[in-house]
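User: My advisor, Dr. K., asked me to get a structural model of this assembly before our group meeting. I'm new to this, so sorry if the format is off. These are the inputs:
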Amino acid sequence: MGASRRRMFLIALGFLAPALVLLAGLVLYPILYTVVRSFFSAEGGAFVGWDNYVTMFTNDSTFTAIRNNVIWVLVAPVACTVLGLLFAVLLEKIKWSTAFKLIIFMPMAISMLAAGVIFRGMFQESPNLGVVNAAAVAVNSAFGGGDAAYPGATPRGDSGLIDDSGILAGETAVTAGSEQNFPLVGLRADDVPTSAAQAEDAASAGADQITGTVWLDVVVGGDGTVGQIDDGKSGLPGIKIDAVAADGTIASTTKTDAAGRYVLDDLGKEAYRIALPASNFDEGYQGVSWLSSGLITAVIILSYIWIWAGFAMVMIASGLSAIDRSLQEAARMDGANEWKVFSRITAPLLSPVLIVVFVTLIINVLKIFDLVYVIPPGSSKPAANVIAVEMWTVSFGGGSNQGLGSALAILLLILVLPSMIINVRKFREERKS
Amino acid sequence: MRFMRHQRLIVPVAIAAAAGLALAGCTSGESTPDDSSGNGEFAGTTLEVSAAWSGAEQTNFEAVLAAFTAESGAAVNYSSFGDNAATTLGTQIEGGSPPNVAMLAQPALMNQLAANGNLQPLSAEVIAAVAENYSQSWVDLGSSDGTQYGVWFKASNKSTMWYNADLYDQAGAAVPEGWDDFLAQLQIVADSGYAGISIGADVGWPLTDWFENVYLRTAGGDLYDQLTNHEIPWTDPSVTEALDVLATLWGDDALVEAGAAQRTFPESVTEVFGADPKAATVYEGDFVAGNIADDGTSTVGENALFYDFPAVNDSAPSVVGGGDVAVSFTDDAATDALMQFLASPAAAEVWVPEGGLTSPNNNVDTALYPDDTSRQIAEALTGAETFRFDMSDLTPSAFGGTAGQGFWQIMIEFLQNPSDVMGTQQKLEDAAAAAYAG
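Assistant: The format is fine. Below is the predicted structure of the whole assembly, which you can bring to the meeting.
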């Protein structure tokens, strides 16, 4: 008896050996070696005990990485599963559902790296480069924003003018009968309207008038005296000008002519501040800085959802096609509305699939690397950091500290383990039933 | 006359190089020596030479080696180790067959090989040739622990301020003299409706180069070396001074184009030299000429010009840069002859007219450079009283070479908040202390 049992054991071992060798060599050994390595210094020469683990939990960048991973795990799997469920259930009810499913699943066919590059391009801050901000700016200007004639103009320095959050005004108030000139800079000569003429000195002011000139204080080629009306300096026509009384009321308003001259009439005896309202210079809405530190994680999670919602949809749709339709029919017969059918019948029947999708996504999200590596520009990289990227950076990204890198890898392994165990249990139960 | 002599040299050299290349066709970058040229002092000997260069650079360098063969009779095999200088040479040394001569791009690797005893010190003749042809900065850079090991053959200049001449002319801005004038000229450009300067700080390396240039000018070469080796802390007052100078530019929103932290370096070049320029100046090394050519809108030498990084407080001409140093592994007469040849102007003068080589050799005839811009780059380099290697390439890579961390990242943070000089210094010191200890 013993002999034949041993024989059986040897035969079994013989069949299992190739798999065991592969598993041991490719899975077990790397894990064990990583554990060992995490107790050694950067070069691997010196035993440092728990030092790497202490460093890991005390430095800022790892702390941000762990915090971001928590945000990821809380947001991304739920969002993907819910969206996938919605798509799967709703697409069941329409014609051409396969075509729609194909489109939603399509991002899965794009590598994460390429998707990252696409999203980085889409969310560029400059409306000339990023399509999202370009759309935002287009919508804004469709509703009348950003149509100022001279965006970005600023007063010439040391010319007695101030820039008060976009409103350009004289530093001091002036009384009727005097002059207030506005030499402006920061405008391109090409952007001055063709109606503009050579700037000229305003006519001397009457007793109830204030006069002056608004001109571009730059000569193409760089001649001329700063703050003076010279040949080649252009007047700025069509600029709105207000005379503001001490109590803040606007006593008079006018616009400049082609040579940049203006005359404010009907003024009293008091002193007025002469101001060019911000509407002349408003640069308009410039969109949102999507890739800045504050929004970067949201943008990356969004791109992740774009890719993985399709995966969730396909998994759930296949689960959906496998459930017993007669239960839904029966519920409808009994007068249940569609929401009741969904929440009481469809969803519970789908729960095994939902849990598998959800847990798979959690594991996937914990390991997220490519998108976080590609999308953020340098300035917001620290804010977007996650454990896998941190692990790579300290090990290979220049730091060459593979001790600390191994410790981070072990942390990642420990975080992923519970979800793995849940998944394995789930499979076992399914096999039993 | 000079031209005639030069022609005569070039033709056989070009033929030899072409023959070498044709034979090398299938052997991935390794050329077979031309056996026909065997009647010099070292006829019958074969030397092995390695460098990182491939493609056009390899062709040009092989022409240099062929000139040596024509002169000495020694055949020379060239092989490229690509980006893996340390690994490749390490393996060859361990196997007992290092090349006779190698070109290294990292002084740290030269120091390490010298410390391990792998390198041959330069012979008296080579030292004499170096003394005759190079300025002291290059002698020091080629030395390790007081012994001379290296001959610098190729150099790069990272102290060049590139500007769009059309925009400068339109605004009436001129090439500045000194830092304050630099800011004034940028203001003149800004008045004309274009940003004075565009910075691409998506990754921090351009910013570390900014700092190195300013620091070399405010603190001088000795403190630069000490800071490089972390012999003085980053909290030193000399660092404060350099950061204060940088802040006068970086903190001025009127001069610097907005959005620097999200702009890649090539984008910052396009902002200045592209079809729709938004800024008039961009700072980086001589390689910007390549970026401008890639973009294709502006032409280097016509409307894309450069001036030297402005002096600060009347500092002497200084250049931050990089380069390739020739070192020898074997102690024999033929190798020594090759090192002497590489230290002579004749070697560089083979390559210089072909473009792509800036020689640190003072006695190379600058008339040979193929265009005014490359001549100006070379003259700035050889005319500099102080030359220093790029600091971030000399520090531990955890500090000076890692995206998202250390020197790079802290300079990005400083660009975003240039008022925080003290905090920046403390962060730099903390990062440096950790990296130099590890």
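One thing worth pointing out at the meeting: The longest strand of chain B covers residues 318-328.

User: Perfect, thanks a lot.
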